[in-house]
Every structure is written in C-alpha cells, then in structure tokens.
Design goal:
About 75% of the residues lie in helices and about 5% in strands. The protein contains twelve helices and three strands; from the N terminus they run E-H-H-H-E-H-H-H-E-H-H-H-H-H-H.
C-alpha cells in the first residue's frame, strides 16, 4: 500500500520557463546569443592556446582544459533548454534525465578540481619560481588534469546513483529547466533524508576539498607576496592571480548556494536565476575574465585575429 503513489511512467517534464508565456521567445534569443558567444569564446581560447607555442605552459594548459570542461558542461544543458524554449518540447526521458544529471554533475566537479589545480600552479609559480619548470613538468600536469576528470566522473556517477535508484511519485513535473539535483530529488517518494545526506556528503567532499586546496595555495601565495619589498613587485605578483580568483569566487559562490543548503529553502524563481548564472553566465565569464586580464592571452588572440585577416587578403 505504501507504494500506491509510485509511477512507472519513465519520463519527466520541465516547467522551468513555462510561466513566462510570450517572453519565452525573448529568452530563447537571449540565451542563444549568450551560448554562441560562450561556445565561440571557449573554443577560440582552446585553439589559440594549442596553436601559440608561447602559451604552451602549465598555466595555459590548465586554462584550456577549464574551457573544455565548461564547454562540455554547457553542451549537456543549454541546447536542450533552447529546444524547449523554441519548440515547447519540455519532455525528457527517464534515461535522458539521468544522463543529463550525470554529465552536468561530472563537469561541474571537474571544474572545481581544475580550479584547485590552477591555484596550485599559481602557488608554485609565486612561492618557488626557481623550481617551477622542474616541479610543473608535463607528466605532473597530465596527472593533475586526469585526476580532475576522474574525480568529476566518480562524483557525477555517485550523485546520479543516489537519486535514480529511488522511486518517483505520480508528479513527474520538474520545477526547473534541466535535471539538476534539488528539483529532481523533490519528486522522489517517501523519506529522502538519507539521500539528501548522501548528496550533502558528496557535495561537501568536492567543494570543501577543492576549495580548501585553493585556500591553502593562496595562504602561501599571500605570505610570499607580503615578503616582496617593493609595492610594484607585490602588485605584479598578485596580478597573475586575479583572473583565477575572480572565477573561483563566482564558481564556488553559485555552487555553494545550490548544494550546501537544506531542501526547505528551495525556491523556484530564485533557484532558476542562480542556475541561469552558473549554466549560462559563468561559462561566458571565464574566457572574458582571462582574456581581459591576461596580457599573454590578449596578445595571442590579437595575433590569431590579425593572422586570419592577413590570410583572407
């Protein structure tokens, strides 16, 4: 009798933007424009770093993988969202929802650990600059990137299994525009306390471990910068970290708000706004922040653009 409300209809329906009516077309144009800029910017950064030999250093290697990770993350969410806004098809299969959750969670976790790796790279560059080349050798860089991707895969798998082994109730309407953890979990029948605890533990493990590594790196970086005698030297050393710090603050701010809070505090309108920020806006900010604040990337982009113009002539 306890399972009379359980349904075996293997699918869901998004309600994310259904209440916006005629504004959905405007949202489609806005999100499509932002997505195309995001996709183009991240792919351009990957290609430029790959082609410009002056950028073949650990810092830019990690930046290119961060751009790749952000690109894959948006590919799993935004095209499906745009399809729903344009054609009104808000249905997604059970398997499709599980796959979307797995990939979005995997890439989000990968981003966390790549940011931690980039923090470690800045620590070595500023605190032990004379040993930078020896310590940040290609083998270590490859191992750090591979570990970030492996952690992402394991986190995504764990998060998906925690939720999709549970029975879902008759209500199959997701109050969101993609299969994110909190709205899907709200459709589960019965007591979800244990599942919520499992998700919280997994989220804490990823966010706190990666953020602690970043904090530790910057504690050493700050101590090293304060020892630099000249104000100009301190400013120059710190300027190499500002892009990374900006992305870290935005990324961890959104992630902490979404996953490190009780279920009772969920709000459809507010959560959608935050979700739009970290699925649409944040991936766009990464290439913009690094392009605007990094002179080497600016030069490489300028050379690539000028080379393309010369080639057309």
């Amino acid at each position: 009798m306890g399972h009379t409300n359980v349904t075996y209809w293997r699918g869901f329906r998004f309600l994310g933007f259904s209440s916006y009516g005629q504004l959905q077309l405007l949202l489609f144009v806005l999100f499509l424009s932002l997505y195309l800029i995001t996709l183009t910017s991240n792919v351009f950064i990957i290609v430029v770093i790959r082609l410009d030999s002056r950028l073949h250093t650990p810092m830019y290697l990690f930046l290119s993988f961060l751009s790749l990770s952000e690109t894959c993350y948006t590919l799993g969410i935004i095209p499906r969202m745009l399809s729903g806004l344009a054609m009104g098809d808000q249905a997604i299969s059970y398997e499709g929802c599980a796959a979307q959750m797995f990939f979005s969670a995997s890439w989000a976790c990968t981003n966390c650990f790549l940011l931690a790796v980039m923090g470690f790279d800045r620590y070595v560059a500023i605190c032990v600059p004379l040993h930078y080349v020896n310590r940040m050798h290609p083998t270590l860089c490859a191992q750090l990137v591979a570990t970030s991707f492996l952690c992402g895969y394991l986190f995504g798998l764990g998060m998906t299994l925690v939720i999709f082994h549970l029975p879902f109730c008759n209500s199959h309407e997701i109050q969101h525009f993609f299969c994110d953890t909190p709205p899907v979990l709200s459709l589960v029948c019965g007591n979800t306390g244990l599942s919520e605890l499992g998700i919280l533990v997994l989220s804490l493990l990823v966010l706190l471990v990666s953020f602690s590594l970043i904090t530790l790196s910057y504690a050493y970086i700050l101590a090293a910068i304060l020892k630099i005698p000249s104000a100009e030297g301190r400013k120059k050393a710190f300027s190499t970290c500002t892009s990374h710090l900006t992305v870290v603050i935005i990324h961890y701010g959104c992630a902490s708000f979404m996953y490190l809070r009780p279920k009772t505090s969920y709000s459809l309108e507010r959560d959608q706004l935050i979700a739009v920020t970290y699925t649409v806006v944040t991936p766009l900010l990464n290439p913009i922040v690094y392009s605007l604040r990094n002179r080497a990337v600016q030069t490489a982009l300028k050379n690539a653009f000028q080379g393309r113009l010369m080639g057309k002539r």
